[in-house]
Amino acid sequence: MKSIPNRLARISLAAGAWVGGAAYAVQSLPGGPGVRQLNLAAPATKIAEEQHFLHWMMLIICTVIFIGVFSVMFYSIWKHRKSRGAQPANFHESVAVEVAWTIVPFIIVILIALPATKAIVAQKDTTNADLTVKVTGYQWKWGYDYLNGEGEGLGFISTLDSSQRAMSDSGDVSQAPADYLLRVDNPLVVPVGKKVRIITTANDVIHSFAVPAFGIKQDAIPGFVRDTWFRAETVGDYYGQCSELCGKEHAYMPIHVKVVSAQDYTNWVGVQKKTAAAKLDDPAKVWTLAEILQRGEKVYAANCAACHQANGKGAGPIKPLDGAAIVLDEDHAKQVQLLLQGRQALGMPAWSQLSDTDIAAVVTYTKNTWSNKTGQLVQPAEVVAQRGK
């Protein structure tokens, strides 16, 4: 039975390729979308395989029912048409027919319900996970925090690669790579063959964490916690996107899951912990303006430029930073609090996940860039004082 979907998929893809010809120069992305893809994404987990089986099984059952019912209907219309002098039969009921159309649909429903229930129950069983990762949706990026298992304590933000965003803004995508709008700076890294529990939530609006190859899609809702899980069977790169319309940058919120061997994962965790330790800043350190401006430029490019633009002019409902009163204000607390808490009415998410030094650096950068030549310097200690308010 499971070989049927593969045969039908190959036939469909061949037909699509014949019709489409060589009209597109794009390439299929392993672990992501394929050129003229007509079937579901190639499964990389047992759950995804079950979903494929259910999809094709139900499609075949529905097709058989459709052909059977309409064949009888059209045959009856043709055979007993008025032009042939057919006379209507005069009868009231048939016990055999009534029993048949009660029992047969019941059997069909059972045939569908049993494997579907088994798959749904398995999808919701997040117990005994080897690794637990909290996934937080932000406008418009993902935050990953490793809560349990190897790598516990690691956390980072995953954002669309800046070069691909620049390519999209330019409108020239003639040289777009296979992973166009799916490449990120920090992919979610997990070990192969391990059960990974994903806990989803959001910082601003509703997002949805979806990776088709794993057969998972779970909404990330502010103030709520949802969970799902997957166990990748093979190493490789797998891609998804936020599948809940979450604002104007919705199309720039990709998901990249990198599945590696157990040893490579251990090595990656070691490197990440060393890097995290090296990045720890003393919030009591006093920075010079030149030093903190260099840091702020990098923080702004990675987190703020997508909305406020590199020139600080903003776009549409996004307010400009160049010449903004809150940026020019000598009361640093106002801008620091805006970053820490956000402001939904302005479409401004909270950035409390950034370190005290990074927030101080980006605030200082905005106060001293473009036409904002204020000379003001914000120290990390000021951010520390504002976090508790």
Overview in brief:
The protein has 389 residues and is α+β, with helices and mostly antiparallel strands.
Structure description:
Residues 15-24 have low confidence and may be disordered. The protein has helices spanning 3-20, 46-79, 95-124, 162-170, 262-279, 289-303, 305-308, 325-328, 332-341, 356-367, 380-387, and strands spanning 131-138, 141-148, 155-158, 188-191, 196-202, 207-211, 216-220, 226-230, 236-241, 254-260. The protein has 389 residues and is of the alpha+beta class. It has a five-stranded mixed sheet with strand order 3-2-1-5-8, with no helix packed on it. The protein has a three-stranded mixed sheet with strand order 4-10-9. Strands 6-7 form a two-stranded antiparallel ribbon.
List its traits.
alpha+beta; five-stranded mixed sheet; three-stranded mixed sheet; elongated; about 400 residues
Estimated helix fraction? 40-55%
Strand content: 15-25%
Number of helical elements: 11
Cα gyration radius (Å): 28 Å
Read across the widest sheet, the strand sequence of neighbours is: 3-2-1-5-8
CA distance, first residue to last residue: 62 Å
Mean pLDDT: 89
Structural class: alpha+beta
Give the CA-based shape: elongated
* Main sheet attributes: strand count, strand direction, barrel closure: 5 strands, mixed
Reading the helices and strands in chain order gives HHHEEEHEEEEEEEHHHHHHH
Number of strands: 10
Question: Residue ranges: pLDDT <50 for 5 or more in a row?
Answer: 15-24
Topology of helices and strands:
Elements lengths: L2 H18 L25 H34 L15 H30 L6 E8 L2 E8 L6 E4 L3 H9 L17 E4 L4 E7 L4 E5 L4 E5 L5 E5 L5 E6 L12 E7 L1 H18 L9 H15 L1 H4 L16 H4 L3 H10 L14 H12 L12 H8 L2
Parallel strand pairs: 1-5, 4-10
Antiparallel strand pairs: 1-2, 2-3, 5-8, 6-7, 9-10
